[in-house]
Amino acid sequence: MDNIDIRTQRTRIENINALPTVPGTVKKVSQVIGRPGVTLSEISQFVVGDPALTTKVLKMVNSAVYGFPGRISSVSHAIMLLGLSVVKGLLLGISVFEIMQQVMAGLWDHSVGCAVVARAIAEKKGLKDPEEVSVGGLLHDFGKVILMLEYQTQYEEAMKQAASRKTAIFEAERAVFQETHSAVGTWLAERWRFPPNLVEVIECHHRPGSARKAPMETAIVHFSDILVRARGFGFGGDPLVPAVHPAAFDLLALTDADIREVLDKLESSREESGSLSL
Ligand SMILES: [Fe+2]
Ligand SMILES: [Fe+2]
């Protein structure tokens, strides 16, 4: 098996719509959300024009991932409530759901679990946009999907190495691809014009100490990723539960009671994550 220097593939990956393995639905969403100056009403029209997507959006906004009190029954209402960057992230998450199930069993549950936990912690910390942090949780491992789709043999080798050497998947990725899924996710997040804070969360979720713009948000997703693994919720590419970065843990300053409360939310979303399979 030949290793690949994924850094040489950046332009190819950024041009996601030309990748043969990426499904049409993901490309369609990617095109709309990546359009410069795209507005909420354009996105709303796009969603409403697709009945299957409409159903999925409503199911998602009414799930534990967002947890609005009361049912939201119209797409335009949901989109107004959530705001541009959250809606963009949500659509991507939804569009990639099926493919996540196919390429890595458990990655969807891992991502949804992480979104639920990240939002709960962001609320605890009084952040002004917990939904955006939750999108960070939903999309933090997006790079894995692309690596698995486009470089399946190499990615399977990385997973095998991670399992046999008992290392984190991102370390095995670095051995095989020279870079990790965080970098791949970052290239795409930039391409989709996500806000800088969200880009940084994706980029630094395995090294939260490097976060400069959004250290708290990054620490939240870093911790959520580990918490979800520790609870055996879904699968993120390796069976490890890594240590929490000490500085991130200090920054979060969560009490035992806080963590228990967050875990309760995760548990009660467990059923629902499966039902989001639509
Ligand atoms: Fe990751
Ligand atoms: Fe993860």
What string gives the helices and strands in order?
A: HHHHHHHHHHHHHHHH
What does the overall shape look like?
A: globular
Number of strands: 0
Radius of gyration: 18 Å
CATH fold call: Hypothetical protein af1432
What ligand species are in this complex?
Answer: fe (ii) ion
CATH level-4 homologous superfamily: Hypothetical protein af1432
The total count of helices amounts to 16
Written description of the protein model:
The N and C termini lie far apart (37 Å). With 278 residues, the protein is mostly helical. It has helices spanning 10-14, 24-34, 40-48, 51-61, 75-82, 84-103, 107-124, 130-139, 142-150, 152-165, 169-177, 181-191, 196-204, 215-230, 246-252, 256-275. The chain has one domain (13-275): Hypothetical protein af1432 (Orthogonal Bundle). The mean pLDDT is 93. Bound molecules: fe (ii) ion (2 copies). The site of one fe (ii) ion has 5 residues, from loops. The site of one fe (ii) ion has 6 residues, from loops.
